[in-house]
Structures are given as structure tokens and as C-alpha cells.
Design goal:
Layout (H helix, E strand, L loop, with lengths): L6 E2 L5 E5 L2 H4 L7 H6 L16 H15 L3 E5 L2 H4 L8 H16 L3 E7 L5 H5 L8 H16 L5 E6 L1 H7 L17 H18 L6 E8 L2 E3 L4 H17 L7 E5 L3 E4 L2 E2 L19 H13 L4 E6 L6 H20 L4 E7 L17 E3 L6 E3 L1 H12 L1 E2 L10
Helix pairs in contact: 3-13, 5-7, 7-9, 8-9, 8-10, 11-12, 12-13
The structure holds beta-D-glucopyranose.
Length: 401
């Protein structure tokens, strides 16, 4: 998709980037993923280790985003730091995340806080994770524990990141989440996710200014000729169930990367010769516009927040091309009437991609030895789009920021 005109976005549109605790903080030693990374025979390519050390360097990360021109930052709380043992709340961890919220404001970034981005404390995992009868209560209580972080200075809270992916991977021990495809969701877990979301929103309702929702991995299912019904049947438990559950929420998060073709026997492999990214996914920028339209239609008009969109590539110009294509499709959906509140790029930094550091999604690279940050051209480019609140013509070339 190319643009010849400048595409303006509405006043107040949020432009930012997103991260998740386990993928950037480093040493999240007390969660289920860390345990798995250190289980002999798990087959995980490499452990998360120090990650980007953003637990200590978050101010530097935020400053780079803000200096580039972005105005929003989405990050997640690490439950295993806040409640390291069942019922024990770490005041120091609460203070840490409060400092992160304060730093966002200091740098002019609107914070969006995700309560749960895949990882659970070891104690929660040991009792069966989301399968334990008290799981929903435990998540509601964790939300309560976290109220001091979000009750003051935060407008946007995402209860659960990609509950549909959680439901597909829960209890499974795939070694590389990003490359594992989409196993059938566990419908019992899907329902637990829905209830956990509802309960968490109720707790967050005690801070009336908060605008709460959850974020769904949209997958742009494409039906092969004659496979429309199979596609609906395949897509419902993997995407639409979770969008339907967002009806009545303040907003719904869309996280779009690629598309999936559905044939008579389910998902089809990517045809040979198709451009793929470092996660093995098809390069397909229109996925965002499609995901946003589907979310809007299924929820009956709940405002959409793009909470993730991006590409794993070592070619930063390709990242810019992809993002331009995605934003063009997004703008088209908005012109057609979809209410979109903002765009948060995945990801602020190259990060731990659930098993490996190889797929690089970041606007910022960093040195594995020194942790020194190296902003990429794509950060400067997205920052300029944010400052202009508009996407310029496609032939506008980008130099070093
Ligand atoms: C997740 C991120 C992940 C990204 C790219 C989303 O599924 O929320 O944690 O890194 O996609 O794989």
C-alpha cells in the first residue's frame, strides 16, 4: 500500500510504543517463564537473563521515546514482583511501578498499564495456573494490590494481554511461543480469562477515571474459496470470542501482525516465495486495518486502541515500510468510521521474544554487554509521524534521526 497524500490523524491521538515486563526488565526470576527457561530439556533457545535491564533503565527508555516525539508508553506490571508469595505484597515493587508512572508524566508520555502480560508468579503456576478454582479471585486480588499504582496518574489500564493466546498456550510447553503457531484454544481457560477480565475491571472501577479494556491478538483470517464457514468456525474461539467479551468495555486493544489463510483442513502454510519476517510470519501490513475493523464490528462500536503492531526484522527500512503500510490501513479504517484512540508500536526495544532474542521488533537496539541504547531510524521516523500527527507521502525518505 502506498500513499500519495498526507494522512492526518485526529487531535489527541496517542502515539507510542509498548513493552512487557518479562521481555525487557531482566531477572524476573520468580515467574513461570523464568522457571521454564531454566528447566533442563525445555528446548528454549536462550533464557531471558538480564533482558534489556529496563527494570533499572526505564527512564532512559522513556526519554528516548519522548525525545523522538512519541507521547505514550505501554508497559506491564510483573505480578511475581508485586506478589512474590501468595498474599504477600512487596511495597518496594509497588513503589517501583509508581515511579514508572511518575516518570512517564515527567517525560510527557501518557502511560498505559497492562496488569498481566503472560507471566504469572511461580506460586500461581505451581497450583495449576489459570486452572485453579481460585485463579480468578487471585487475579482480582492482585488487581486490588496494584490499585495504588494505577489509581493516580493513569488513564488507561489493560487487564490482560492477549487472553486468546493465553488460552492457546496455557499448560502447553511449546518451547518457542512465537514460532509455535496457533494450537486450539482451551475453552475452559478462555472462559476463565473472560471472568478474570470482568472481575479485574470491577476492581479497577473503584478508580472511576480509569478507562479499562483488554487487548486481543487479531489474526486477519482469510478464507480460501469455499471455506468461509470453516474460517468462521476456526476464528471464533481464537479471536471473536474475546472481542465479543469486550462489548461494553471502555476500549478494546488490537494487536495485529500478520494474516492466516484457512483452507478446508484449517490453516494453510505460507506459500513459498512469500516475504516472511524473523518470526516466520508473512509480511502483511494490512493486518492492522483488518484487525481494527473486525474489533469494531464484533464489539458493536467499542473504541479501539492499537496496543501492538510491528515487525521482527533486521532491516530497519522494512520496519518503516511495514509501519507505514499498517498506518495507511488504519487511517482508511478510521476514515470509514472506526473510532481509534491511538497507536502503540511493538516494540520500544528489541526484546526477549519468548524463547529467543533473535526476532528483533524494537525501535531501539541495545548492546548485550553494556546495555547501551541505540535508537534506530524507525524511532525517529515514527516520532516525526507522531509530532506531525500525520503520515506524510510515501516518497518522503527518512534520514538518520
Ligand atoms: C505479544 C508480545 C510478543 C509479540 C510478538 C504479542 O503476541 O503480546 O509479547 O512479543 O506479540 O511476538
Amino acid at each position: 500500500m502506498t500513499t500519495t497524500a498526507t494522512l492526518a490523524f485526529p487531535e489527541g491521538f496517542a502515539w507510542g510504543a509498548a513493552t512487557a515486563a518479562h521481555q525487557v526488565e531482566g531477572n524476573t526470576v520468580n515467574n513461570d517463564w523464568w522457571a521454564r527457561e531454566h528447566t533442563p530439556g525445555s528446548g528454549i533457545a536462550e533464557p531471558s537473563g538480564d533482558a534489556c535491564d529496563s527494570y533499572h533503565r526505564y527512564r532512559e527508555d522513556m526519554a528516548l521515546l519522548a525525545d523522538a516525539g512519541l507521547n505514550a508508553y505501554r508497559f506491564s506490571l510483573e505480578w511475581s514482583r508485586i506478589e512474590p508469595e501468595e498474599g504477600f505484597v512487596s511495597r518496594a515493587a509497588i513503589d517501583h511501578y509508581r515511579r514508572m508512572v511518575a516518570a512517564c508524566h515527567e517525560f510527557g508520555l501518557t502511560p498505559m498499564v497492562t496488569m498481566l502480560h503472560f507471566t504469572v508468579p511461580r506460586w500461581m503456576d505451581a497450583r495449576g495456573g489459570w486452572r485453579h478454582p481460585d485463579a480468578v479471585d487471585r487475579f482480582a486480588r492482585f488487581t486490588e494490590f496494584s490499585l495504588p499504582i494505577v489509581a493516580d496518574g493513569v488513564d488507561w489500564v489493560c487487564t490482560i494481554n492477549e487472553p486468546n493466546i493465553v488460552s492457546m498456550i496455557h499448560g502447553r510447553r511449546e518451547t518457542d511461543l512465537v514460532a509455535s503457531g496457533l494450537p486450539a484454544p482451551d475453552e475452559a481457560i478462555s472462559e476463565v480469562m473472560r471472568q478474570a477480565h470482568v472481575r479485574s475491571r470491577q476492581v479497577l472501577g473503584s478508580a472511576p477515571a480509569l478507562r479499562t479494556g483488554w487487548s486481543v491478538a487479531t489474526q486477519a483470517f482469510h478464507a480460501e474459496p469455499g471455506c468461509e464457514q470453516q474460517t468462521r468456525d476456526y476464528g471464533y474461539p481464537r479471536e471473536d470470542f474475546f472481542l465479543d467479551a469486550a462489548r461494553g468495555d471502555d476500549w478494546v486493544g488490537v494487536q495485529a501482525y500478520t494474516r492466516t489463510f484457512i483452507g478446508p483442513d484449517g490453516p494453510r502454510p505460507i506459500p513459498e516465495g512469500t516475504e516472511t519476517t524473523l518470526t516466520g510470519w508473512e509480511y502483511f501490513p494490512p493486518a492492522l486495518g483488518i484487525g481494527v475493523r473486525n474489533a469494531w464490528a464484533r464489539t458493536g462500536g467499542v473504541p479501539v486502541f492499537v496496543t501492538e503492531n510491528g515487525i521482527a526484522t533486521a532491516d530497519d527500512q522494512r520496519r518503516i515500510d511495514y509501519t507505514r503500510g499498517a498506518l495507511t490501513g488504519l487511517h482508511q479504517a478510521m476514515s470509514d468510521g472506526v473510532d481509534v484512540l491511538g497507536y502503540l508500536h511493538w516494540s520500544a526495544l528489541d526484546n526477549y521474544e519468548w524463547g529467543s532474542y533473535r526476532p528483533t521488533f524494537g525501535l531501539i537496539a541495545w548492546d548485550r554487554q553494556t546495555f547501551a541504547r541505540h535508537p534506530k531510524n524507525s524511532l525517529g521516523w515514527l516520532g516525526r509521524v507522531a509530532r506531525a500527527n500525520a503520515l506524510g507521502p510515501a516518497d518522503e525518505r527518512v534520514g538518520t534521526p
